[in-house]
Amino acid sequence: GRTIDMGSGQFLLYVPKRAGGAKVKMGPVTAAITGTTVLGQVYPSGIVEFTVLEGSACMSLDRVGQTLQVNAGQMVVYDPLAMRLENPVEVDLQEQLNSPLVSGFRPLPSSGLIQETIESQRQVVAPNSDLDRAVRAAGAASIATATPDQFMQGFNSVLVSYPASQVRTLVAGAIRARPDLADRIRAAAYSARRVRYSGYSKDGKDFKEYKGKEIVAPECPPTNQFVQPFIITPLTPQFPPPVSPEQPPRGG
Predict the structure, then answer these.
(1) What are the sequence ranges of the domains in the chain?
(2) Is 81 helix (H, G, I), strand (E, B) or coil?
(3) Residue 218 above 80 pLDDT?
(4) Which CATH code fits 1-105?
């Protein structure tokens, strides 16, 4: 693969599958991608916005050892004042496609995959979908007319039983249907995600040794976290230096 160094401004990048992958450097932030279409912007202030239109990317902030995975329909923001990658948030992909950077050019080779993700987001709120039935069970006539509490009650009941691989689609579809509740939807999804992955750890079993010469990094963690430092414990304990019998005791 190759490394693309972005200075500032907007960019749209498509990396086909089996093309060897690529790394995108955006100041202190690096994104490793393969078989992925991404949209991003680097501001003169150092703020970075990075959106995955299809596929996934592994983001890293090397200076503090922070890594996280970003999936299709998600955006991550890096603020140099906070010096960390924020948690990924679900976005409306159809709105992202309206960006002049995307709409001003010929269709992307991956446009079919992007449309599949958009259609999945729409199916989440289709009539008689899981979310639609749950919201009506909470007492609402429809998703659009549900009160905030009715909608969140229905959303949470679906969220706990939704397959982990499809949660981001559920969240994106819910936000698309009720943008007024976007913050509450994201907060609920983030809380559920933390509970679901609370057992994830970065011990030695997550590393794979290749031919005894190279240690391959673990897979991108499913939640936003900092890499724990690896501290080598001395083989022999460190005792205080011996004291000469002729040396007067301290404090005497």
Answers:
(1) 1-105, 125-199
(2) coil
(3) no
(4) 2.60.120.1440
